[in-house]
Amino acid sequence: MLLGLLFALTAGLMWGLVFVAPVMLPGYAPALLTVGRYLAFGLLALPLAWALDRRALRELAPRDWWQAAQLSLVGNFLYYLCLSAAIQRAGAPLPTMIIGTLPVVIAVCANHRNRVRDGHLPWARLAPSLALIGAGLACVNRDEMAALQAAAGDPHRYAEGALLAVFAVACWTWYPIRNADWLRAHADRSPRAWATAQGLVTLPMALIGAVLLGGVRLAAPGTLVPADYAFPLGERPWAYVGLMAAIGLCSSWLGTLCWNEASQRLPTSLSGQLIVFETLAALAYAFAWKQQVPPPTTLAGVVLLVAGVAWALRIKPVAHTA
User: Is-contact 95 165, C-beta < 8 A?
Assistant: First the structure.
């Protein structure tokens, strides 16, 4: 349990880096950051596969590679594509609030779906944890909610953005549950090799995405990429390449590796709640980058999030009886 908690914490610290990338590279569209991140992930997976996991990767059957491809497609590309499009249509506040429900949604879905394999976390004991996490997310996103209420825009675009954000939540609810299914069914396999396998199948997808992005830019300038953008690397090529390489290695490969390790050790209903570490890390990095002190409401939200996780860790699964 403790080791799984530490791996989930490390995954959250790695994934939080992704949320400051748009702040560090404000002139780069979300689609460019998404393709750049996963292109770097795939390219970095090649030497990692050769140096570290050649033997383990050779043991994967075709159905395992197909599963890795599905996980990468849904958990990486579809998730970030929907999230980016939601932000473009509705602005940041609404999608942020909807995505913030992930820890609760995953915990609820996994607690019902995986009750036979993982045991059942009694709802009466789980409810306070979910309530604390929900209240913490509401406090953390209070400013986002205020901005959403003050915004005046096209209601149809807000509706489209909301639907896309809900679909993004569905994608990343499906991903950790199915990823945990494979890892728990293959407890003898290396979580590191499974992370590398997902990186390898991500590479052709990222290459196709880069080609499509270039085609869209030529056919419909300004649609996904600003018309004045210096394609493909922009006005700060070294900063873009360096940041994408860092995120590809730390957030994608190392983050996935640590999450895989946590998923093998913890019930999915519990590991789902530990995604709050990503939220906490993203907040810390954002305020550090802006050199600001979090407002009291945000600090209160952080305390509630930590309290919710601590409460969840005290709950012991109960064997399911049919």
Answer: yes
